[in-house]
Amino acid sequence: MEAYEVVRVFVNKTVVPAEPRRRGNPGYGRLKAVRLMVYSRQVGLENDTRVVEHLKRHPEALRGLGFRRVPDRTTIGRWWRRYAGLLNKVFEWFSKLIRMLAPTTLLVVDSTPLIDYDLEAKWGFTGRGPFKGFKLHAAVNQLGLPLKGKVTSGNRYDSPLLPSLVEDLEAEYVVADAAYDSKANRRIVRRIGAEPVIAQNPRRGLRKKPKHRKLFRKRYLVEQFNGLVKNHVLKGCWTMPRGLAKKASMVTAGLISLNTTAVKAILEDEPSLRKVSR
Fold first, then answer.
1. Sign of torsion, CA 111 114 118 123?
2. Spatial contact of 260 and 38, defined as CB atoms under 8 Å apart
3. Which of 16, 77, 89, 249 is deepest in the core (most CB within 10 A)?
4. Which long-range contacts (C-beta less than 8 Å, at least 24 apart) are formed by 7-15?
5. Which residues neighbour 278 within 8 Å (Cβ) at sequence distance 6 or greater?
6. How many CB atoms lie within 10 A of CB 37?
7. Residues 159-190: pLDDT tens digits?
8. Residues 6 or more apart in contact with residue 2 via CB below 8 angstroms
Protein backbone atom coordinates (compact mmCIF):
# COMPACT_ATOMS: atom_id res chain seq x y z
CA MET A 1 0.00 0.00 0.00
CA GLU A 2 1.42 3.36 -1.06
CA ALA A 3 1.86 6.21 1.44
CA TYR A 4 -0.99 8.26 -0.04
CA GLU A 5 -3.28 5.20 0.16
CA VAL A 6 -2.45 4.74 3.84
CA VAL A 7 -3.20 8.41 4.51
CA ARG A 8 -6.48 8.34 2.56
CA VAL A 9 -7.69 5.20 4.36
CA PHE A 10 -7.06 6.53 7.87
CA VAL A 11 -7.52 10.29 7.43
CA ASN A 12 -11.13 10.27 6.25
CA LYS A 13 -14.46 11.96 6.94
CA THR A 14 -14.79 10.10 10.22
CA VAL A 15 -11.55 11.67 11.46
CA VAL A 16 -12.02 15.15 9.94
CA PRO A 17 -15.58 16.44 10.49
CA ALA A 18 -17.38 18.08 7.57
CA GLU A 19 -17.20 21.84 7.18
CA PRO A 20 -20.37 23.97 7.31
CA ARG A 21 -21.52 25.07 3.89
CA ARG A 22 -20.52 28.55 2.82
CA ARG A 23 -21.14 30.84 -0.09
CA GLY A 24 -18.63 31.40 -2.87
CA ASN A 25 -15.69 29.23 -3.87
CA PRO A 26 -15.62 26.14 -1.59
CA GLY A 27 -11.85 25.83 -1.99
CA TYR A 28 -10.04 22.56 -1.38
CA GLY A 29 -11.67 21.68 1.92
CA ARG A 30 -9.96 20.86 5.18
CA LEU A 31 -10.10 17.09 4.72
CA LYS A 32 -7.85 17.30 1.67
CA ALA A 33 -5.65 19.86 3.43
CA VAL A 34 -5.09 17.59 6.45
CA ARG A 35 -4.41 14.62 4.19
CA LEU A 36 -1.76 16.57 2.31
CA MET A 37 -0.09 17.83 5.47
CA VAL A 38 0.12 14.32 6.93
CA TYR A 39 1.28 12.90 3.58
CA SER A 40 4.07 15.48 3.34
CA ARG A 41 5.52 14.12 6.56
CA GLN A 42 4.83 10.52 5.53
CA VAL A 43 7.16 10.88 2.54
CA GLY A 44 9.59 13.36 4.14
CA LEU A 45 8.99 16.57 2.17
CA GLU A 46 10.89 19.32 3.99
CA ASN A 47 8.95 22.40 2.83
CA ASP A 48 5.94 23.58 0.84
CA THR A 49 7.92 23.98 -2.40
CA ARG A 50 8.96 20.33 -2.24
CA VAL A 51 5.32 19.35 -1.66
CA VAL A 52 4.22 21.14 -4.84
CA GLU A 53 7.07 19.66 -6.89
CA HIS A 54 6.32 16.17 -5.56
CA LEU A 55 2.63 16.37 -6.48
CA LYS A 56 3.50 17.53 -10.00
CA ARG A 57 5.82 14.55 -10.46
CA HIS A 58 3.37 12.07 -8.91
CA PRO A 59 -0.15 12.69 -10.27
CA GLU A 60 -1.31 9.35 -8.82
CA ALA A 61 -0.57 10.70 -5.32
CA LEU A 62 -2.41 13.94 -6.18
CA ARG A 63 -5.54 12.03 -7.22
CA GLY A 64 -5.18 9.55 -4.36
CA LEU A 65 -5.31 12.39 -1.83
CA GLY A 66 -8.49 13.71 -3.46
CA PHE A 67 -7.13 16.70 -5.42
CA ARG A 68 -7.91 17.61 -9.02
CA ARG A 69 -5.11 20.15 -9.33
CA VAL A 70 -1.94 20.97 -7.44
CA PRO A 71 -2.50 23.62 -4.73
CA ASP A 72 -0.36 26.73 -4.79
CA ARG A 73 2.66 26.85 -2.49
CA THR A 74 1.30 29.85 -0.57
CA THR A 75 -2.04 28.08 -0.10
CA ILE A 76 -0.31 25.10 1.50
CA GLY A 77 1.69 27.50 3.67
CA ARG A 78 -1.51 29.02 5.05
CA TRP A 79 -2.94 25.60 5.86
CA TRP A 80 -0.28 24.91 8.49
CA ARG A 81 -1.55 27.81 10.61
CA ARG A 82 -5.24 27.68 9.69
CA TYR A 83 -5.67 24.01 10.57
CA ALA A 84 -3.31 23.80 13.55
CA GLY A 85 -6.19 23.13 15.96
CA LEU A 86 -7.69 20.55 13.60
CA LEU A 87 -4.36 18.71 13.37
CA ASN A 88 -4.31 18.47 17.17
CA LYS A 89 -7.83 16.98 17.15
CA VAL A 90 -6.82 14.44 14.48
CA PHE A 91 -3.79 13.48 16.57
CA GLU A 92 -6.07 12.98 19.61
CA TRP A 93 -8.35 10.76 17.50
CA PHE A 94 -5.43 8.54 16.49
CA SER A 95 -4.29 8.43 20.11
CA LYS A 96 -7.71 7.08 21.12
CA LEU A 97 -7.60 4.52 18.29
CA ILE A 98 -4.19 3.26 19.37
CA ARG A 99 -5.38 2.98 22.98
CA MET A 100 -8.32 0.88 21.78
CA LEU A 101 -6.12 -1.44 19.69
CA ALA A 102 -3.30 -1.63 22.24
CA PRO A 103 -4.50 -0.73 25.79
CA THR A 104 -1.93 1.38 27.62
CA THR A 105 -0.05 -0.25 30.46
CA LEU A 106 2.96 2.08 30.56
CA LEU A 107 3.50 5.77 29.84
CA VAL A 108 7.00 7.22 29.41
CA VAL A 109 7.31 11.00 29.43
CA ASP A 110 10.25 13.07 28.20
CA SER A 111 11.25 16.04 26.04
CA THR A 112 13.74 16.38 23.20
CA PRO A 113 15.33 19.54 21.76
CA LEU A 114 14.46 20.81 18.28
CA ILE A 115 17.54 22.89 17.55
CA ASP A 116 16.74 26.01 15.54
CA TYR A 117 17.77 29.66 15.24
CA ASP A 118 14.39 31.13 14.41
CA LEU A 119 13.50 34.56 15.82
CA GLU A 120 11.07 32.86 18.24
CA ALA A 121 13.64 30.27 19.35
CA LYS A 122 14.82 30.41 22.97
CA TRP A 123 17.84 29.07 24.82
CA GLY A 124 17.22 25.93 26.82
CA PHE A 125 19.20 23.21 28.57
CA THR A 126 19.42 19.43 28.29
CA GLY A 127 21.71 16.83 29.80
CA ARG A 128 24.13 17.53 26.94
CA GLY A 129 24.26 21.26 27.58
CA PRO A 130 22.59 24.43 26.30
CA PHE A 131 20.82 24.68 22.96
CA LYS A 132 18.74 27.24 21.09
CA GLY A 133 15.43 26.26 19.57
CA PHE A 134 12.25 24.51 20.65
CA LYS A 135 11.20 21.39 22.56
CA LEU A 136 8.98 18.47 21.73
CA HIS A 137 7.34 17.10 24.90
CA ALA A 138 5.78 13.66 24.43
CA ALA A 139 4.22 10.75 26.29
CA VAL A 140 4.65 7.36 24.59
CA ASN A 141 3.09 4.01 25.44
CA GLN A 142 4.69 0.59 25.91
CA LEU A 143 5.04 0.27 22.10
CA GLY A 144 6.87 3.58 21.81
CA LEU A 145 3.94 5.30 20.07
CA PRO A 146 3.07 8.92 20.94
CA LEU A 147 -0.24 9.42 22.75
CA LYS A 148 0.34 13.06 23.67
CA GLY A 149 2.66 15.68 22.22
CA LYS A 150 3.31 19.39 22.57
CA VAL A 151 5.85 21.80 21.05
CA THR A 152 7.12 24.72 23.14
CA SER A 153 9.99 27.16 23.10
CA GLY A 154 13.32 25.79 24.30
CA ASN A 155 13.29 27.64 27.62
CA ARG A 156 10.19 25.89 28.98
CA TYR A 157 10.81 23.58 31.94
CA ASP A 158 9.70 19.96 31.62
CA SER A 159 8.06 19.50 35.02
CA PRO A 160 5.03 21.85 34.61
CA LEU A 161 4.06 20.10 31.35
CA LEU A 162 3.63 16.61 32.80
CA PRO A 163 -0.06 17.14 33.78
CA SER A 164 -1.02 18.01 30.18
CA LEU A 165 0.88 14.95 28.88
CA VAL A 166 -0.92 12.41 31.07
CA GLU A 167 -4.41 13.89 31.48
CA ASP A 168 -7.27 11.82 30.04
CA LEU A 169 -4.95 8.80 29.74
CA GLU A 170 -4.95 5.53 31.66
CA ALA A 171 -1.90 3.48 32.58
CA GLU A 172 -0.47 1.32 35.32
CA TYR A 173 2.83 3.21 35.54
CA VAL A 174 4.17 6.59 34.44
CA VAL A 175 7.95 6.71 33.99
CA ALA A 176 9.88 10.00 33.90
CA ASP A 177 13.35 11.30 34.67
CA ALA A 178 14.42 13.64 37.48
CA ALA A 179 13.28 16.75 35.57
CA TYR A 180 9.69 15.81 36.50
CA ASP A 181 10.40 15.18 40.19
CA SER A 182 7.80 17.01 42.28
CA LYS A 183 5.03 16.18 44.72
CA ALA A 184 2.47 17.84 42.44
CA ASN A 185 3.40 15.61 39.51
CA ARG A 186 3.18 12.50 41.64
CA ARG A 187 -0.30 13.53 42.76
CA ILE A 188 -1.34 14.09 39.13
CA VAL A 189 -0.09 10.63 38.15
CA ARG A 190 -1.94 8.95 41.01
CA ARG A 191 -5.08 10.87 40.07
CA ILE A 192 -5.22 9.05 36.70
CA GLY A 193 -4.91 5.72 38.52
CA ALA A 194 -1.22 5.13 37.74
CA GLU A 195 1.82 4.68 39.94
CA PRO A 196 4.57 7.31 39.46
CA VAL A 197 8.02 5.99 38.65
CA ILE A 198 9.90 9.30 38.66
CA ALA A 199 13.62 9.59 39.29
CA GLN A 200 14.70 11.59 42.29
CA ASN A 201 16.22 14.99 41.68
CA PRO A 202 19.51 15.10 43.68
CA ARG A 203 18.99 18.82 44.33
CA ARG A 204 16.04 17.93 46.56
CA GLY A 205 18.23 15.92 48.94
CA LEU A 206 18.46 12.20 49.72
CA ARG A 207 15.23 10.34 50.24
CA LYS A 208 14.11 6.71 50.38
CA LYS A 209 14.78 4.56 47.34
CA PRO A 210 11.93 4.62 44.81
CA LYS A 211 9.90 1.53 44.03
CA HIS A 212 10.01 -0.27 40.68
CA ARG A 213 13.53 0.92 39.87
CA LYS A 214 13.74 -1.63 37.04
CA LEU A 215 11.03 0.28 35.18
CA PHE A 216 13.47 3.16 34.70
CA ARG A 217 15.05 1.04 31.98
CA LYS A 218 11.86 1.51 29.98
CA ARG A 219 12.95 5.08 29.29
CA TYR A 220 14.62 3.68 26.19
CA LEU A 221 11.12 3.68 24.61
CA VAL A 222 10.91 7.47 24.59
CA GLU A 223 14.57 7.80 23.60
CA GLN A 224 13.97 5.56 20.58
CA PHE A 225 10.88 7.58 19.75
CA ASN A 226 12.83 10.84 19.90
CA GLY A 227 15.44 9.54 17.48
CA LEU A 228 12.85 7.99 15.18
CA VAL A 229 10.59 11.02 14.93
CA LYS A 230 13.39 13.57 14.49
CA ASN A 231 15.61 11.62 12.09
CA HIS A 232 13.12 9.57 10.04
CA VAL A 233 9.80 11.47 10.22
CA LEU A 234 10.50 15.17 10.74
CA LYS A 235 13.97 15.26 9.13
CA GLY A 236 14.60 18.80 10.34
CA CYS A 237 11.44 20.18 8.71
CA TRP A 238 10.86 22.50 11.70
CA THR A 239 13.86 24.62 10.61
CA MET A 240 12.21 25.63 7.30
CA PRO A 241 9.18 27.77 8.31
CA ARG A 242 9.16 30.82 10.54
CA GLY A 243 7.29 30.98 13.80
CA LEU A 244 6.36 28.48 16.48
CA ALA A 245 2.79 27.99 15.20
CA LYS A 246 3.73 26.54 11.82
CA LYS A 247 6.60 24.52 13.25
CA ALA A 248 4.27 22.96 15.84
CA SER A 249 1.77 22.03 13.10
CA MET A 250 4.50 20.30 11.10
CA VAL A 251 5.58 18.31 14.15
CA THR A 252 1.96 17.34 14.90
CA ALA A 253 1.49 16.17 11.29
CA GLY A 254 4.63 14.08 11.74
CA LEU A 255 3.22 12.42 14.86
CA ILE A 256 -0.02 11.67 12.98
CA SER A 257 1.91 10.14 10.08
CA LEU A 258 3.84 7.94 12.51
CA ASN A 259 0.63 6.77 14.17
CA THR A 260 -1.14 6.04 10.87
CA THR A 261 1.67 3.68 9.92
CA ALA A 262 1.61 2.17 13.40
CA VAL A 263 -2.16 1.57 13.28
CA LYS A 264 -1.73 -0.21 9.95
CA ALA A 265 1.03 -2.34 11.51
CA ILE A 266 -1.13 -3.22 14.53
CA LEU A 267 -4.04 -4.25 12.29
CA GLU A 268 -1.67 -6.42 10.24
CA ASP A 269 -0.22 -7.96 13.43
CA GLU A 270 3.27 -6.76 12.53
CA PRO A 271 5.65 -7.74 15.38
CA SER A 272 8.07 -4.82 14.89
CA LEU A 273 6.20 -1.51 14.91
CA ARG A 274 9.38 0.50 14.99
CA LYS A 275 10.70 -1.19 11.86
CA VAL A 276 7.43 -0.61 9.99
CA SER A 277 7.28 3.03 11.11
CA ARG A 278 10.69 3.67 9.61
1. positive
2. yes
3. 249
4. 7/35, 7/38, 7/39, 7/42, 7/65, 7/257, 7/260, 8/35, 8/64, 8/65, 8/66, 10/94, 10/260, 10/263, 10/264, 11/35, 11/38, 11/90, 11/256, 11/260, 15/90, 15/93, 15/94
5. 228, 232
6. 27
7. 999 999 999 999 999 999 989 999 999 999 99
8. 60, 61, 64
